[in-house]
Amino acid sequence: DADVTQTPRNRITKTGKRIMLECSQTKGHDRMYWYRQDPGLGLRLIYYSFDVKDINKGEISDGYSVSRQAQAKFSLSLESAIPNQTALYFCATSETGENYGYTFGSGTRLTVV
Amino acid sequence: AQSVTQLDSQVPVFEEAPVELRCNYSSSVSVYLFWYVQYPNQGLQLLLKYLSGSTLVKGINGFEAEFNKSQTSFHLRKPSVHISDTAEYFCAVTRVSGNTGKLIFGQGTTLQVKP
């Protein structure tokens, strides 16, 4: 099984619908992140969480919300999807210390029509 | 705040030729540096990272990068590329002190290896 698992892998939804993207990890890391990838823009941070009670906005949080249900689970919600939220979404975890680094999920491709 | 600039959006190169993908960063504090690769329709895979120590970092698949603090650069190199290296490459930074874990990415460079 993958260390960071995202579901669904692909999703097409209609404008105005609520949608949730899910992420679970087996790394045991406290820190989790949601990124959005758009062509030519790289990845941009939406939200990040250091533990269940610590959730922070990233650079593009408008229109999104998150829930950290447990250390291993971090969900991203679009309350009312709009077409410019069509993108590839990545969940990631990170560890600190000597082995500082990030592990990314395989991504969720979301299309809003 | 930190920022990352990848100087080339696309780099075409012939198979077995050397390649350099350029990355410059801006930061008033010390940073950790990363290179990731994204193959078509896949997630991000870590190529290499610089945390401390030797400024020449060796990664997977024959890639290496050199941290140059004076020029605020972290260019990625490979002496001989293969068709299978065709992918998008991302440079990223995060601050060391007061680390929030926020990883800032460049715009990406598409490496196109031609036969």
Would you kindly provide a written description of the structure presented here, covering whatever features stand out?
The complex is a heterodimer of chains A (113) and B (115). Chain A contains no helices and eleven strands. Chain A has strands at 4-7, 10-13, 19-25, 31-38, 42-51, 54-57, 64-70, 73-78, 87-95, 101-104, 108-112. Chain B is mainly beta and 115 residues long. Helix content of chain B is 0%, strand content 54%. Chain B has no helices and twelve strands. In chain B, the strands form three sheets. In chain B, strands 2, 5, 6, 10, 11 and 12 form a six-stranded mixed sheet that branches. The mean pLDDT of chain B is 93. The A-B interface holds A 31, 33, 35, 40-45, 48, 50, 56, 58, 90, 92, 94, 96, 98, 100-102, 104-107 and B 4, 6, 9, 32, 34, 36, 42-46, 49, 51, 90, 92, 99-108.
Write the layout of secondary structure elements.
The complex is a heterodimer of chains A (113) and B (115).
Chain A: E1 4-7, E2 10-13, E3 19-25, E4 31-38, E5 42-51, E6 54-57, E7 64-70, E8 73-78, E9 87-95, E10 101-104, E11 108-112
Parallel strand pairs in A: 2-11
Antiparallel strand pairs in A: 1-3, 3-8, 4-5, 4-9, 5-6, 7-8, 9-10, 9-11
Chain B: E1 3-6, E2 10-14, E3 19-21, E4 23-26, E5 31-38, E6 44-50, E7 56-58, E8 64-68, E9 73-78, E10 87-95, E11 104-105, E12 109-114
Parallel strand pairs in B: 2-12
Antiparallel strand pairs in B: 1-4, 3-9, 5-6, 5-10, 7-8, 8-9, 10-11, 10-12
